[in-house]
Amino acid sequence: MTEVSIPTKEQPSKEQIADVRAFTRFYTRQIGLLEERLHKSAFSLTEARVLYELAHRNGLTATDLGRDLGLDAGYLSRLLKKFESRGFVTRAPAPTDARQSVLSITDAGRKAFEPLDRASREEVAGLLGRLSAEHREAVVAAMQRVQRLLGQNREPSTPYILRPLQVGDIGWIIHRQGVLYAREYGWNESYEALAAEILAGFVKSFDPEYENAWIAEREGEVVGSVFLMRKSAEVAKLRLLYVEPSARGLGIGRRLVDECIGFARAKGYKTLTLWTNDVLVSARRIYQAAGFQLTGEERHHSFGKDLVGQTWDLAL
Amino acid sequence: MTEVSIPTKEQPSKEQIADVRAFTRFYTRQIGLLEERLHKSAFSLTEARVLYELAHRNGLTATDLGRDLGLDAGYLSRLLKKFESRGFVTRAPAPTDARQSVLSITDAGRKAFEPLDRASREEVAGLLGRLSAEHREAVVAAMQRVQRLLGQNREPSTPYILRPLQVGDIGWIIHRQGVLYAREYGWNESYEALAAEILAGFVKSFDPEYENAWIAEREGEVVGSVFLMRKSAEVAKLRLLYVEPSARGLGIGRRLVDECIGFARAKGYKTLTLWTNDVLVSARRIYQAAGFQLTGEERHHSFGKDLVGQTWDLAL
DNA sequence: CGCAAACAGTTGACTGAGTCAAGTAATTGC
DNA sequence: GCAATTACTTGACTCAGTCAACTGTTTGCG
């Protein structure tokens, strides 16, 4: 939550680089500690890594292994030969390419790997066991975050899911909108307060028959949301549409608006209305594309800025 | 934000262990990639680590280095001898223990290390440079989180600081309280809505002359908060006291209440009042210790539970 | 098609990072 | 005051990992 003094758009800051290096040093040591016990076993660290991959993935070739683990081809070749001679691994000619063989681990290989695998699990369990349940959860979540952000598998298999509101969501959305609009448009804390007021009212008077909320979640994180509220029997209001900057470009905003429109139609509303500000350009594009018409504009001073408020309506 | 299906209080779950191991494998590879270029330099990885430590810390002995980097004493001894013969390092007899020497890096050592250091920085800059500014910030924050939680330096130098309200705080506090009380006491989303309503009102009608908020922050994270609101010229109300489970036991709750009391006295209030529920045991202890008296109790059904509300007053 | 370039994997020849055990001198603990 | 421990050194070794040269196969392109 610390705000960087000089927001660097393009280049990583010195502090960020230093922090990452500090983490790398730290984790290098951590890995060293975790492996200390293991390298007394029958397998070297690299052998263990290779066995692990073979045990957990199918249809691997030597090239795959070398690429994914960063190993020298020659070294790997010998290593596999040793495994084959001990009966831990078998090679089958690859159907498509006669140069390659498909590797698979044998039962004997799994059996030989098991103690090592268990030792590794115990080692990690010991590390985590020292922490409270709270901290343990937090560590795992943070690791996943690092891995996901740094990982090359940039596109998750499911780009996002929509789900109903849960406890914790409205606070999170208030927080993120507050921070985001402060950063992007310089709005002050009164916007955050407005979001809090709207959402408090939404939950308090929530009518599941005529109202709804959609939360976009991506890999366990909230990345967008929208709320549909009943204004009258004929008019529904779309409120607080937002998409995380990191999740933009996936069509989440459009999808959220479409869900609102579909729900409003199904519930028999005649009009879907919304209020926004002209500075929110990307949101406006979504509204326009969805068929909303601008029906009113007015200048106002809110959130510490001079703004132009806009009302958009969609006939359902 | 994913809720664990079966909350394990004592032992790390299989999933957590698997996740940590996955991360370790991932980062092992990552470190390998970062070092690929470096090991073409004049120094081995271990030599670089030793030089790094020497360049950034003072008064190190060989034992310190061996312990912190996990190196064999014999290997380290030879390594230092080599550095000494090249004029990168000097040894001075340790004042307290004639067996030890205090190591220090020379200017020549720094100079020899510099290209390596720069290459490492560039490598990391390259890694981070592929990310958007958003993602970059998130990665660094998550790494720091892992390091802090896993690091042995359990106690930060400043256990916590108090600061005024910032944009983003109220949403964050609503979120955390919602999640926390749902988890600990099974309260439903209406508590979160109540918190949102209270805080929206606080910000909207905030009178800095007679009202205040204190946020407890620890290593850049919000770990507690309290709000003081004006009820009348003579009565102030303390609201929404909370401390993160991970930061309990540091006296943060007590400190927040004390700040409220001091502020209320300074502003000439005659009474400080608050409303709580009897299930919030640790909060009650703080109020009692601070001299609050229980002045009323009533049963109510709120937040999906049968509760006993309590009013506590303190004469100022 | 045909041929050069690239690729998958193998093998030989190294090297140097890291280990292990035994030893010295100083310090600590009882 | 003496045994146990600690800080460091040294000798002897090994094995993980590198590099380059080679075989057979596939790909790309005129």
From TrEMBL, chains A, B:
Keywords: Transferase. The keyword Transferase applies. One of its GO terms (molecular function) is N-acetyltransferase activity. Gene3D superfamilies: 3.40.630.30, Winged helix-like DNA-binding domain superfamily/Winged helix DNA-binding domain. The keyword rRNA-binding does not apply. Residues 160-313 form the N-acetyltransferase domain. Residues 13-148 form the HTH marR-type domain. This is GNAT family N-acetyltransferase. It comes from Allomesorhizobium camelthorni.
